[in-house]
Amino acid sequence: MTTQFNAAAGPVARILDDIQALAAARALAASFTREASLRDRERQLPVHELEQFSRSGLWGISIPRAYGGAGVSHVTLAEVIATIAAADGSLGQIPQNHFYAVEILRVNGSEAQKRFYFERILAGERFGNALAELGTRTSQERRTRLSKDGDGFRINGRKFYATGALYAHRIPISVIDDDGVQQLAIVKRDAAGVSVIDDWSGFGQRTTGSGSVVLDNVWVTAEEVLPFQSAFERPTSLGPVAQLLHAAIDIGIARAALHDAAVFVRTRSRAWIDSKVERAIDDPLTVREFGDLAVRLAGAEALLELAGTVVDAAAWDPTVNSVAAASIAVAEARVLTTEISLAAGSKLFELAGTQATLAEHNLDRHWRNARTHTLHDPVRWKYHAVGNYYLNQKNPPRHGAI
């Protein structure tokens, strides 16, 4: 099914600093959480919610202040994403590739490209993505071609896992040029030859729209193409920023699972007979398990905040050592954010009891979201990267997946 979404016109707030960004995220989260379960259960695409999200100004907060954005810290950016993801895991993930595109423009875009695209983002345009492909030898391989045609180029290929493309105004597409070099083409969502297909059927993150994008002889100008591969051939903060946002999504999912588990145990669960108490919240073993989850979540949040500060340093002064340190700090955070999001989503049922499995509560969405999202990059390789860094003084690879 090919779907076209046209964004409704409306004023976009201009967020000026970190404090305003966090306040806007909390206000939106309070609204988004109300029907998050319904949207997941019935796979209702969050078109209205994304309009609210865009007009809040939050999609422009990572744009540098020199270009009119708030230039928020990466600590703040991660907390904004975690706050939205706690309200709705899918809504927390949809802008991840938008912020990734902003970072690509920041580190690799020409001055003209930065001014052109940053202005449009601040006016409310959303960027999606069409990076990954199915059927390749590795997750990093690309077959979609960018072929020279007169003063511009033609794009042909097919993408999948295109989170955000369904709702986007522009779609950044990874392409291989005539010389075999990977570039990034920023294509209008409604350009001739672009088909966005709503065929995402994952059991989690159900409304991210992470389906297919088909590109049939799509024309782009030279101004719509910028270097991509070179952002990994030299030290930049691009990879750590992408991974930091994934960690933030996991934190949000974990927060939601722990919150809903606590509400259910307080209001519905029964104490185990051998506990000799009348209320589930007084069961000492249940209390102990909640304490364990809370400590693990706090530890993951602390590592996420620390990673944000290290990414800030790498973005400010990108060197081989600063970027490696940022990648490792984010990998450390992702180890714990992966584990706590999965643990909270699973332990919820053990602590809340059999009632919690009833479809009417839809509490399994937290585990489904965590299990789906944490598959982006295997955590076992993050352990390897961290161990190699400290034991063998080997920097992690620069490819965006560590």
From TrEMBL:
Organism of origin: Collimonas arenae
Domain (Acyl-CoA dehydrogenase C-terminal) ranges: 244-377
Any Pfam family the entry gives: Acyl-CoA_dh_2
A Gene Ontology biological process term: fatty acid beta-oxidation using acyl-CoA dehydrogenase
GO molecular function: acyl-CoA dehydrogenase activity; flavin adenine dinucleotide binding; oxidoreductase activity, acting on paired donors, with incorporation or reduction of molecular oxygen, reduced flavin or flavoprotein as one donor, and incorporation of one atom of oxygen
InterPro entries assigned: Acyl-CoA_dehydrogenase, Acyl-CoA_DH_C, Acyl-CoA_Oxase/DH_mid-dom_sf, AcylCo_DH-like_C, AcylCoA_DH/ox_N, AcylCoA_DH/ox_N_sf, AcylCoA_DH/oxidase_NM_dom_sf, S04_starv_induced_SfnB
Top-level taxon of origin: Bacteria
Family statement: Belongs to the HpaH/HsaA monooxygenase family.
UniProt KW keywords: Oxidoreductase
GO cellular component, one term: cytoplasm
Domain Acyl-CoA dehydrogenase/oxidase N-terminal residues, every copy: 24-125
UniProt protein name: Acyl-CoA dehydrogenase probable dibenzothiophene desulfurization enzyme
NCBIfam families on file: sulfur_SfnB
Gene3D superfamilies for this protein: Acyl-CoA dehydrogenase/oxidase, N-terminal domain (1.10.540.10), Butyryl-CoA Dehydrogenase, subunit A, domain 2 (2.40.110.10), Butyryl-CoA Dehydrogenase, subunit A, domain 3 (1.20.140.10)
Lineage: Bacteria, Pseudomonadati, Pseudomonadota, Betaproteobacteria, Burkholderiales
